[in-house]
Write a structure and sequence with these properties.
Low-confidence stretches of chain A: 1-49
Number of helices of chain A: 10
CATH topology of chain A: Phosphatase 2c, domain 1
Distance between the termini of chain A: 28 Å
CATH class of chain A: Alpha Beta
Largest sheet of chain B: 6 strands, antiparallel
CATH class of the domain at 136-314 in chain B: Mainly Alpha
Oligomer: heterodimer
Largest interface: A-B, 61 and 62 residues
Number of strands of chain B: 41
Mean pLDDT of chain B: 84
Shape of chain A: globular
Radius of gyration of chain A: 20 Å
CATH superfamily of chain A: PPM-type phosphatase domain
Low-confidence stretches of chain B: 1-32, 201-216, 315-325
Helix content of chain B: 10-25%
Structural class of chain A: alpha+beta
Shape of chain B: elongated
Number of domains of chain A: 1
Order of helices and strands of chain A: HHHEEEHHEEEEEHHEEHHHE
CATH superfamily of the domain at 136-314 in chain B: Transferase(Phosphotransferase) domain 1
Radius of gyration of chain B: 32 Å
Helix content of chain A: 25-40%
Chain lengths: 313, 645
């Protein structure tokens, strides 16, 4: 195991793991992908993984975690990640598609809505963007990235209206292509960019009634936290016409981390803590698990979904 | 029509009422899909034969049907359908009972702006209302069909009729009727131009007992409706929201709730009087107590504002846009040459350099416009001069690129291309990069005037090249945008549908360029794929300008546009009186841009509101520049202007 890790991550011999850490590691890895209950201290982690990985082709490194939470008995969140490299005109560029959707509605309509949203948008992006890029016909790409995202969301919107009875979902998607990142957003899931200094920038705007009341000064941030209508959205996928997602493109910042999450995380774990933890641990997978664990420790009132994407330096 | 489908409730934090709201949907036995509507040809209760679907909502549809009780004539009726999906028999029956009770109330209403109700019945899980068929369009369709803005007088006219019909409902005895869902799609205009309120009462029926569950129609609903309160003042707010939408064409459903104050009517549609704006914003007050106490009071306010603006007497004549106030702006100096100035000046060391169609490049004293020297080429000059190490560089339609001593105006060298030069020089790495109508991009040593290389572009290059890092970007008249390295080898190529005459600009890893194909493109600088496109109405040869998160450009459709650089959403557009081929620039908090209408415009850059305009005698096609707080630009009236800001 040690030699394998050394080989993979070019671990410096000077930071040899202590025997106790070696014993702990396999247990902790086994729990990856299960719901919760993993916690890594900052001291433990560097002994498992070196602080920096240097790869020939700078890669996006992704972590994912999900939990049904403590109070809920089923999961209405859906998520999706796809990370790869493309060879465009002899240049290798990063491609990543990351989606979180938080469904709502009675019966199983919430689950159905969020999985439809993810499924429809994913297949649309793969068919209209990824396949042409891979098959070297990218010079003939007919639509802009934003148009592709918009039509994908519209497909998802129509599918939810058709397939569910009153179901709806939030959707926050990040598409990374080379140096540009396009965020597509409806509802109150969130996307944050966290720079190497721990500065956190919220890239999305909650389409939530209470957030709006707070913005126009009708209620205080404290009142917003306990407001009975804090779960009411004024825009959601599958709900209402006309319908328009927020779509915006940004240049990715080198060494930054992109955090996507449902309100099961940001609603219970304070922003400062999100930034601290995201910055403190180097492996996105471990960060995601720690975040889910924190949300559950705080009561886990809702489903929790987290995706972290580390942008290479 | 659509009720529960508008609730955007997320699980969690739901009150008892919320859970009840989703109950009827969640527990439906066999969920009938909203799209499952009646097919044409079906006859209901042996009387109403469905002819077509007029509209489909989440809980049913509206049909046009023929009433078979009139066999000798075609009597058309509207059939409104409500599909009751509740499985719980108690809830199911409550919905049916509420529907019938409300239908009974509606049957007693008698007002010219309310369609008459002929019949109602329930069959299985569906209930139907048979009502007067209104031949006309709803206001949402009318808005969509209107190219420009609706005239103020038209909207005031409708507003007054709406106040009348809402007053009628609010004064209903024994119980006032609150409409609760006033919005453009619920207001029809018949073939005589009168308004009719449609869809009312239905929403109310199904909201009863579901306090706190309604989002209503997002965007038009007042704040208190989210708490489940609905009073007369809620309808007044929604009427205000509807009028705001009609006057600004900004759909409130696409904006955050209660944000009308952030979209001032006058700044979006300057033709609207401040008097009317005041009336509408009073209706839109967040606190119900601050709104009109009744629609009668609002009608009085509308009439009073129409009297002040003189609209009352102008009915129904179209009104002209109000003349805008332009403060006295005068030129510090003017300099006249012998032919049109179509290009852009340059400033260096206290001098202004400008080329003209009298074939000369002029050097003028920037402080007072005094002539310093001129240099004669053998063709017109549209190119923007560039300065570098004591020399000024200019291309001419005589096919040559000139290097001229900045002090003496003497030629140092000239370089021959094989076509007129309309591109402007870009200087970097000791080289001049410039396009020519000979279909090449030329790289020329700045000191020696010798060609380093030329790259075959396949079509004339009028776009000014841009060097970012190790790559040069430029457009061609065939619509190609090339990215070439410093040895002249193409890295990537992007093809627009028509010419790229404007010049590329760069920010955030993106190349922005506008095209004759009417689009403003944002292209990834590394690979050329399209991030977004922004559509204008007509061609653009105007070079974009970026400030903060805004990108500005002009179009032959006569507008100056301001677009959000991340989302490609239009922030504002400003209409000049002719094509905008000049390129905008910003300085402090203003945008400056010329127009073929002959004016130089100064607009507030966040709102697009006109600050002033300065009229010259002929089209302005070049781009203004600003140096030391002075605005310099040329006009086709042969003059150079300097305006102190």
């Amino acid at each position: 195991m040690t030699s394998f890790l050394n080989k993979l991550f070019r671990k410096k011999p000077s930071v040899k793991p202590t025997p106790s850490n070696l014993e702990a590691a396999p247990d902790q890895f086994q729990t990856i992908g299960s719901d919760t209950n993993v916690s890594f201290t900052t001291e433990q982690v560097p002994s498992i993984l070196p602080p920096k990985t240097h790869l020939e082709v700078p890669q996006l490194i992704v972590g994912v975690a999900q939990s049904v939470g403590i109070e809920r008995d089923h999961n209405e969140d859906s998520l999706f990640t796809l990370t790869t490299n493309l060879l465009l005109d002899e240049n290798s560029i990063n491609f990543g598609l990351y989606i979180i959707a938080d469904g709502m509605g009675g019966h199983d309509d919430g689950e159905l809505a969020s999985s439809l949203a993810v499924g429809q948008l994913t297949s649309h992006v793969i068919n209209t963007l990824l396949v042409p890029l891979i098959s070297d016909s990218h010079n003939k790409l007919e639509y802009s990235i934003q148009e592709i995202m918009r039509s994908g969301v519209e497909k998802a919107h129509q599918a939810i209206k058709k397939e569910t009875v009153g179901g709806g979902t939030t959707l926050t998607a990040a598409l990374i292509l080379g140096d540009q990142m396009t965020i597509t957003h409806v509802g109150d899931s969130r996307a944050y960019s966290i720079d190497p200094n721990g500065q956190m920038q919220l890239l999305t705007h909650d389409h939530s009634l209470v957030k709006r009341l707070e913005e126009i000064g009708q209620i205080s941030p404290e009142q917003a936290l306990t407001h009975p209508q804090r779960n009411v959205l004024y825009r959601a996928l599958g709900q209402g016409e006309p319908f328009e997602p927020d779509i915006a493109s940004y240049q990715v910042c080198q060494g930054c981390q992109l955090l996507l999450c449902s309100d099961g995380l940001w609603g219970v774990v304070p922003g400062g803590k999100l930034a601290d933890i995201t910055r403190s641990l180097s492996a996105p997978q471990l960060v995601c698990q720690s975040l889910v664990h924190l949300a559950n420790e705080a009561g886990g009132p809702d489903n929790i979904s987290v995706i972290i994407v580390r942008i290479p330096d | 029509m659509a009720i529960i489908d508008r609730c955007c409730f997320k699980a969690g934090g739901a009150t008892l009422d919320n859970q009840r709201a989703t109950h009827s949907l969640a527990n439906s036995e066999v969920p009938r899909k909203p799209s499952d509507h009646l097919q044409p040809g079906i006859t209901l209760v042996d009387r109403y034969t469905i002819q077509s679907v007029v509209g489909v909502g989440g809980m049913g549809a509206v049909y046009c049907a023929r009433d078979l009780h009139f066999p000798n004539v075609v009597k058309r009726v509207a059939v409104k359908e409500m599909i009751n999906l509740a499985r719980d028999p108690v809830i199911h029956d409550t919905i049916v009972r509420n529907f019938e009770r409300e239908a009974n109330i509606l049957a007693t209403l008698n007002h010219p702006s309310i369609p008459r109700i002929y019949d109602y019945f329930s069959q299985d899980d569906r209930s139907y209302l048979i009502i007067e068929f209104v031949d006309g369009k709803d206001l949402e369709e009318i808005l969509a069909d209107t190219v420009d803005f609706l005239p103020e007088v038209q909207v005031v006219n409708w507003a007054i009729e709406l106040c009348d019909v809402i007053s009628y409902l609010h004064n209903n005895k024994p119980e006032p009727i609150i409409f609760r869902d006033i919005k453009p799609s619920n207001i029809m205009v018949d073939i005589h131009g009168h308004i009719l309120l449609v869809d009312f009462g239905i929403a109310k029926t199904f909201q009863t007992g579901q306090k706190g569950t309604m989002i209503g129609t997002e965007g038009y609903s007042p704040p208190e409706q989210y708490k489940g309160e609905a009073t007369q003042r809620a309808d007044i707010y929604a009427l205000g929201a509807t009028l705001h939408h009609l006057l600004t064409k900004r759909d409130p459903r696409l904006e955050p709730p209660f944000s009308f104050e952030e979209r001032k009517i006058h700044s979006i549609n300057p033709a609207i009087s401040s008097e009317l704006e005041v009336v509408i914003y009073k209706a839109l007050c967040y606190e119900p107590d601050k709104r009109y106490s009744s629609t009668e009071e609002m009608k009085e306010a509308l009439l009073a504002s129409a009297k002040k603006t003189g609209l009352l007497h102008k009915l129904p004549a179209a009104i002209k846009p109000l003349t805008r106030e332009t403060s006295e702006i005068s030129a510090a100096w003017k300099f006249e040459c012998e032919d049109e100035i179509r290009g852009t000046p340059a400033y260096f060391g206290g001098s202004i350099f400008i080329g003209a169609y009298d074939n000369n490049l002029y050097s003028l004293n920037a402080a007072n416009g005094e002539f310093i020297w001129k240099f004669a080429t053998e063709g017109g000059i549209v190119c923007r001069p560039a300065t570098y190490e004591g020399n000024v560089y200019i291309g001419s339609e005589d096919q040559r690129l000139y290097c001229i001593n900045i002090r003496s105006g003497q030629e140092i060298w000239s370089y021959y291309s094989n076509g007129p030069i309309r591109s402007s020089p870009y200087i970097a790495e000791g080289h001049i990069f410039i396009g020519s109508d000979d279909a090449y991009l030329h790289a020329v040593n700045a000191l020696s005037g010798r060609r380093a290389w030329r790259a075959d572009a396949g079509a004339p290059v009028r776009s000014t090249p841009l060097l970012i890092g190790e790559f040069v970007y430029f457009g061609t008249e065939a619509g190609d945008l090339f990215c070439i390295d410093l040895r002249g080898n193409a890295k990537w190529r992007f093809k627009a549908k028509r010419a790229l005459t404007s010049s590329p600009v760069f920010a955030n890893g993106i190349i922005y360029i506008s095209s004759v194909d009417t689009l403003l493109y944002a292209l990834d600088a590394k690979s050329g794929y399209i991030i977004w496109r922004f559509r204008m109405t007509k061609a653009s040869i105007s070079t974009p300008f970026i400030t903060d998160n805004f990108i500005f450009t002009g179009s032959v459709d006569s507008h100056i546009y301001c677009v959000d650089i991340h989302s490609a959403r239009e922030i504002w557009s400003f209409a000049t009186d002719n094509q905008v081929t000049s390129s905008p620039i910003t300085y402090q908090d203003s945008v400056y841009c010329g127009s073929v209408d002959g004016a130089m415009y100064c607009l507030e850059f966040r709102t697009g509101r006109l600050r002033w305009k300065y009229q010259t005698g002929a089209p302005i096609t070049g781009t203004p520049i600003i140096a030391n707080n002075v605005l310099y630009f040329g006009s086709n009236d042969h003059k150079m202007y300097a305006i102190v800001l």
